Queue: 2 jobs
Job 1
Amino acid sequence: MRNKVTVVGAGNVGATCAQVIAQRDYADVVLVDIIEGMPQGKALDMRQTGPIRYYDTNIIGTNNYEDTANSSVVVITSGVPRKPGMTRDDLVLTNMKIVQSVTEQIVKYSPNCILIMVANPLDAMSQLALKVSKFPRTRVMGMSGILDTARFKTFVAMELGCSVEDVYALILGGHGDTMVPITRLASVSGVPLSELLPKDKIDAIAKRTVNGGAEIVALLKTGSAFYAPGSAAALIVDSIMLDKKRILPCSTHLEGEYGINGVFVGVPVKIGKSGIEKIIEVKLTPEESAALKKSADAVMELVKIMKI
């Protein structure tokens, strides 16, 4: 019997994530949503893509959480997306109710799963899922730095006219305006970025990365990014299901690491079949450390709003 991966939320992010996972062909996929017909229709469309993209993944669309039973990994994308002028923080109380209900249902039917949070505000929702699920911190994580790093890499490649595959970068902190791009560690195929671009260009790229989500929201006008976020979540699923031991920047519950305690913040972690297997502590400058702690404080403010 094949492993099962559930994606909660059949909107653009969830559907993109489910499609990418389906194409990997290592597990069956359940796409669940409260809207009748939508997950079923999208799942059927994905099944019919199988003969074209050459995969045999069984994809089920459902409105019933019983169909998610015994999932190995669950990706939570459900929630209200950002609209123009809206910050991730504005979403906290609305999406809190949704994420709490979803987590309760998932834990009921898949008590041994690993949770990946995508709903915004991502770090605060990850904190909520940890509390509601009562899972160990190794089995609850948020997709944050992967997306933010991908945006930084994209902008660097666009500026240099090089392949994104050769760009390496690290972004820490909360998934929002207080994220911390560690630009001094960025490189292109081993060459420090500082030797390829002047400081003002690097700073501009970092600023554009911080505002990367808002830039897309402003352009779309009626929605937010979904191709990159959905694919980023699928990358975490890959590392878990294939036990790849990838070191990826994810939102993680810190318990003293980086001098931060009791809150979810994006840091590099090793991810394998059991979830987060190791938290990587990067030696930061005093300025970087202060910025990371400021980012953690911003997440904690959202946690306080939720009163959890």
Note: Residues 286-306 form the longest helix (21 residues).
Job 2
Amino acid sequence: MQLTKATSNREWQTPSAVTGHRQAQRFGVAWPVIVRGFDQRGKGFQEFAFLKNLSATGACFGLTRALAPGAAVEIDVRTPLSRKQWLRYFGKVVYAGQAAGPQVLGIRFDSARPAFVPTAAVICWRQAEVKSCIVH
């Protein structure tokens, strides 16, 4: 573990303690995502969006529907690195911006390790009824 010299009276701290509460670096990407879950009225949804940023612990994107902090979501991420697989994450909303227009959401992943899902399976999900949506 790398140590850095603290700027306060504390002698040594880890890098995450010096920079704040974030422990993972954010990367600004505009990759397509498919988000599934239940809105504030309890209605199931599936929506296409684009990431604003991504880290090992979470993601940020905008949705047309309002979600409250604590809402569970399933996210399929299409990376430019692979046309055959999508990354599937499960997570919870930890930040919800104002609901006027697209609502900016901050998601914390349940695990930093995604599931790798074949493109054909994601396309089938997109065509299926939202009632069959499974969210952890």
Note: The domain at 26-132 is CATH 2.40.10.220 (Thrombin, subunit H).
